[in-house]
Amino acid sequence: MRIYFTFEPRPDLREPLLAQFPQVDFIFENGLSNEELEKADVLVTYGEDLTADTIQYATKLKWIFVASAGIEKMPAQAIMERGILVSNVRGIHKTPMAESMLAHILAIKRAVPWIYEQQKTREWSKKARQTELRDSTALILGPGAIGSEVGRLLQAFGVTTVGCNRSGKEAPYMDKMVSFTQLTEALPNADIVISVLPKTQETTHLLKEEHFAAMKSSTIFMNFGRGNLVDEKVLIQAIQAEEIGYAVLDVFEEEPLSSDHPLWTLPNVVVSPHISSHSSRYVERSLEIFKPSLTKWLKGETDLENVVDLSRGY
After folding, report:
1. Do the two domains 2-92+280-298 and 94-271 of this chain adopt the same fold?
2. Can you give the pTM of this predicted structure?
3. Which CATH number is 2-92+280-298 given?
4. Domain 94-271 classification at class level
5. Would you state the pLDDT for residue 253?
6. Residues 93, 104, 226, 285: which is the catalytic one?
7. How far are the Cα atoms of 15, 100, 148, 160 from residue 137, in angstroms, in the given order?
């Protein structure tokens, strides 16, 4: 069996993989080549290099392991037509992303950016506008692996967590659940609104003008899912009209964000360049998911962890 990685794990991660599966022919490259794709039985990729054109070379390919949670850049139709199984690393981002979100929330609540600015100007001032996180309410759109983890951390700080998904069914570390149809009614009670929703047709521009109008003027709005959640013109209007207190954004409709985009300079907006999931342990955690699945695959089993339904987009 030939397994083609389109990225190179560090030697300390690669060597144990080779030792555990001596019967497998592993190929490691930085980037995708059609020549290697023709020979591959299994492809391991971050999901951004495979296209509808290049997949035509993958005549032997039966399984694609995506070392990313997002699959929206992959040629879904072409993959489905060829009957190729796809699995990903859903849940791998929960630790770094939850920590990133909590860091931003605490920084705003405890006026950390203001303190840093005071240090730059060497000004001794106690006029910081500091509030407490305890006894707040957080509305979490998409309480899956990532949303549940940030819910767990927020509950430890005495925050009431309300999850919101399509069905309204229970999710871990949520004190209450609502469905998408109940979203407008839930927003006025939220001090923090966090989205970690994936990119699907249903989530595209899910939040509209009336949703921001329903939020508290002090609300911290955070988008750490996908940039399609809200039309950026609607978001900018809400910020300028002071319908919300803060916007912390890790994702955008078009990335990278252009240097002249108004979000860079609007007050109370934090622009994070889609890095909340970054961690020195990323590939390590990816391989922790890949290895058990590969063990099953070598036995002829296909009930792998995190099998993706490409028709639904996740």
Report:
1. yes
2. 0.85
3. 3.40.50.720
4. alpha beta
5. 96
6. 226
7. 46, 18, 15, 5
